[in-house]
Amino acid sequence: MDQMPDESLREVASYFQVLSEPTRLKILNLLRNDERNVGELAQLCGFSAANISRHLALMTQHGLVVRESRGTSVYYRMADDSIYELCDLVCGNIARQLQRSAVSRAVFTTSHG
């Protein structure tokens, strides 16, 4: 990110802002292996179709998902699978932090218990 123009930095921040919402992360995870329509995503996420549609509109606007109409249904799929590399990297980092934290708590509990 060295010497990136301010406009580019704003775009990067906006992209990460889209990824900062748990429902959108759940949608991305559900689209990881298969395309789905709004109804399927709503049922799997436990939210209304209108709520899921708003998330999908934002994700489409930022280029995370692609929308495809087929008859009366609209299907969504990932626009670029490289997003999963980013998610796996972040999730792996968080898992390692949680594991270190759990080990620290266990050591503290047994030495002070």
Question: What do these coordinates show?
Answer:
The chain is α+β, with helices and mostly antiparallel strands and 113 residues long. It has two domains: 1-80, Winged helix-like DNA-binding domain superfamily/Winged helix DNA-binding domain (Arc Repressor Mutant, subunit A, Orthogonal Bundle); 81-113. It is 66% helix and 12% strand. It contains five helices and three strands; from the N terminus they run ααβααββα. Strand 2 and strand 3 form a beta hairpin. Helix 3 packs across helix 4. The chain is extended, with a radius of gyration of 19 Å. The model has no long low-confidence stretch (mean pLDDT 89).
How many strands, what sense, and barrel or not for the largest sheet? 3 strands, antiparallel
| Helix fraction bin | 55-70%
CATH superfamily of the largest domain: Winged helix-like DNA-binding domain superfamily/Winged helix DNA-binding domain
Strand order of the largest sheet: 1-3-2
* β-strand amount: 5-15%
Helix/strand class: alpha+beta
What is the average of the pLDDT values? 89
Overall geometry comes to: extended
CATH class value of the largest domain: Mainly Alpha
CATH architecture of the largest domain: Orthogonal Bundle
Number of domains: 2
Q: What pattern of helices and strands is seen along the backbone? A: HHEHHEEH
Total number of helical segments?
5
Separation of the first and last Cα atoms: 47 Å
**CATH topology type of the largest domain:** Arc Repressor Mutant, subunit A
